Amino acid sequence: MLKVGITGGIGSGKSTICQVFSELGIPIYNADFEAKQLYFTDFDLKSELIENFGESIYLSDNELNKPVLREIIAQEKTRNVLNSIIHPKVFKQFENWVKAQNSPYVLKEAAILFESGADKTVDIVIGVLADELTRIRRVAHRDNLPIETIKKIIESQIPQEELRKKCNYIIHNNGEESIPDQVMKIHQDLLNQSAHF
Length: 197
Known about the structure:
Blueprint: E1 2-7, H1 14-23, E2 28-30, H2 31-41, H3 43-53, E3 58-60, E4 63-64, H4 66-74, H5 76-99, E5 105-109, E6 124-129, H6 132-143, H7 147-156, H8 160-166, E7 169-172, H9 179-195
Parallel strand pairs: 1-5, 1-6, 2-5, 6-7
Antiparallel strand pairs: 3-4
Helix pairs in contact: 2-5, 3-5, 6-7
């Protein structure tokens, strides 16, 4: 089965694009969502996180301490430790999920597809791009975060120009080009490729 990654920086609108693919009947694996579930359902992971970052990483059995987690993600050294703990578990879960699907191709939605090495778990990558101002506005509205925090998150992610070079397809999501038209073109192409895969 053809495995397709879809990625883009915070506020680029990956979830909106995935919704369009979903309406076309394509199964979506949301790596960020699944990772968040594993924080509570995988007890080995939980104890490893507490061992590395202290008990303050959890507020309760089913709630992460978001300010502490943001702090961890903001620093490269601690972010790398966190990623080395969580990503192998997400990769394994994705592998098992793919086996249960029955469609020409599947989509793996991941904000940090390249940074986490998850690009190696897929055959093709779609990048979602939007200008920085649009992204900041979306995230500020959605998450109610200060602009400085949003800018720091953007800086910690792969630059858009680099992303453009690494992806097989690009979807522009500034509100100027039709999303359904762009998705449909890629969808048809992926259907053709999956037939020979």
